[in-house]
Amino acid sequence: MKQNPKAFATLCGRIFRDTDPQYFPSAQHRRKKILLCTGACLGAFLADPDVFCKVHRNSDKAAARLKNEIEHLIGIWSTYDSSPKND
Ligand SMILES: [Zn+2]
């Protein structure tokens, strides 16, 4: 367990893994740091943060669930990776 696989969800509901969140556009919303997938998304968010959040609230939740599943899958994959079995 040296490396923790990274997975994160942007506010707009996209999932990224094995990527550093610092390379993505971010903004503050209600004292919470949020991430966007692209500059275009960030622009849409900044234009009207509340509307953007409302529209994406469901995808945000779905993304959070997906994120957990992906992290689980990554765990399984890395298990396969690290234990090559040759007969
Ligand atoms: Zn986006």
Strands, helices and their partners?
Elements: E1 7-9, E2 15-17, E3 26-29, E4 32-35, H1 39-47, H2 49-82
Antiparallel strand pairs: 1-2, 3-4
The chain binds zinc ion.
Written overview of the protein:
With 87 residues, the protein is of the alpha+beta class. The protein has one domain. It has 2 helices and 4 strands. It has helices at 39-47, 49-82, and strands spanning 7-9, 15-17, 26-29, 32-35. Strand 3 (26-29) and strand 4 form a beta hairpin. It is elongated, with a radius of gyration of 16 Å. Bound molecules: zinc ion. Zinc ion is lined by residues 10, 12, 14, 36-38, 41.
Strand order of the largest sheet: 1-2
β-strand amount: 15-25%
Helix percentage range: 40-55%
Topology pattern, helix = H, strand = E:
EEEEHH
Total number of beta strands = 4
Computed Rg: 16 Å
Please, how many helices? 2
**Global shape:** elongated
Task: Report the structural category.
Answer: alpha+beta
Uncertain residue segments:
none
Counted up, domains total 1
Features:
two-stranded antiparallel ribbon; binds zinc ion; elongated; 2 helices; 87 residues; alpha+beta
Task: Provide a short characterization of the protein structure.
The chain has two helices and four strands. The chain has 87 residues and is of the alpha+beta class. The site of zinc ion has 7 residues, from loops.
